[in-house]
Amino acid sequence: SGSDDGAMAIWKLYTATERKKLFPTDQVVSSTDGLWKCVGRLPDAHSSYAVFSIDCAPTRAGHGRIASAGGDNSINIYREESSVGNGTSDAPKFSLEDVAVDAHDGDVNCIKWHPRDGRCLVSCGDDGAVKLWRYIR
Question: What distances in angstroms separate CA 9 from CA 43, 47, 135, one per listed residue?
Fold first, then answer.
């Protein structure tokens, strides 16, 4: 999720079974409820500008990247670091991999990966433009 202060939070949904095992003292409404927990933060994702949109690449893309759009007119791409010594699914680590500075003439309001092709993104901004992007890494 994104916030007005430029930070991003990474959330994980634990199943009801995982919740009972890992967080037995948490209050829940139903025994079948899962549990959302914030497992990571990127405190300065878009400097001090608002983060308006975040999208995770589709699983079939095979690269686990996150794209974000913000009030700094930019699009950021974050890569999940290898889990060897750097993080786990309960505490993932992401690093900034690429930035499209001035991606739009004004705030970038929305970013979305193509649902089947992890190399394609679309963005829209305050300039009224809708842009298609090819991400090659």
Answer: 8, 14, 23
